[in-house]
Amino acid sequence: MKRGKVSDTILDRSVFKLLGRRGNTSKPAYGQDAAHIHSQGWDTLAAAATGSLAVYRAVNNISAAGGAADCIMNTIIIDEKSREIRLKEIIKELDRQCQVVGVGIAGGHTTVCPNVNSPVVSVTAIGHKLRTHQKAVAGQDIVMTKHIGMSGIRTVISHKRDKILNVLPEDVINKAFAADEELIIAKEAQIFIKQNIDGAMHDASEGGIFAALWDMAEYSGTGLDIDLRHISVKQEIIEICELFNINPYILDSMGCLLMTCENGCDIVNIMKQNGIEAAVIGKITDGNNRIIHNTEEDRYLGLPEQDEIYRFI
């Protein structure tokens, strides 16, 4: 199998079809990145993620599901060649990310395994529900916050900084490299929740904005009508993408939140009043057609592709 997220086809064939709904948990589904657990009057959300920014990814999934994260649990699998100092570095980085999002590490599991080549970190965020996770409805506007490609371009810069500096000035790197706080969607998600608006939320992450749009439509059983020109990309990110022939629309885009509502312009204005960039990028439609409009052509949105970051890691 290819590196990265498992495809929808494999998920359906080898995961979802083998699982039923038991107890008080929600059933796994496309585009649903957090589990809902109802027990003895309590509504709890749980979301898992892996990788170097796993805390942010897991906490973002809780936020997009209509909740607020309370703590995380981590699993660390270390190869036999790693020294104890490497474990300390991993824990310090996890704790640093937790400080950024305001949660603590409640526990975890750490083991040394001979079958891995480098440390593997998995994080599960646990939180409480602020509102019910809703589906998108035909006729609603689609609003996107911030810019695409922010987390992905950080990975590219980390691996190809010297090569970039051979062609582009350091100022381009500095402007393209998003601060950790820009990768968190909790603020805009809670603003949306406080408006008490009927609408869906979904955070962009691995697979980029195209994967996020597909997942949201697949979960809701709807179509899409998207104007590519309204999807915001920083000029500096475009310049680095052009240097390596990267498609920014399938590049890891943590920090972007998709929201649907009846009047997207109202949400855009509210977000901007709170210092968050946002734009209406399209509409939810009836049926299954998922169309992307560009200046020169229209195209159908296909199944999510492998994220561009796997060309660099």
Automatic annotation (TrEMBL):
Residues spanning the signal sequence: none
Superkingdom as given in the UniProt entry: Bacteria
Any Gene Ontology biological process: protein maturation
PurM-like C-terminal domain span: 138-289
Transmembrane segments: none
Listed Pfam families: AIRS (PF00586), AIRS_C (PF02769)
Coiled-coil regions listed: none
Ranges for domain PurM-like N-terminal: 46-127
Family named by the database record: Belongs to the HypE family.
Protein name as annotated: Hydrogenase maturation factor
Organism (species): Lachnospira eligens
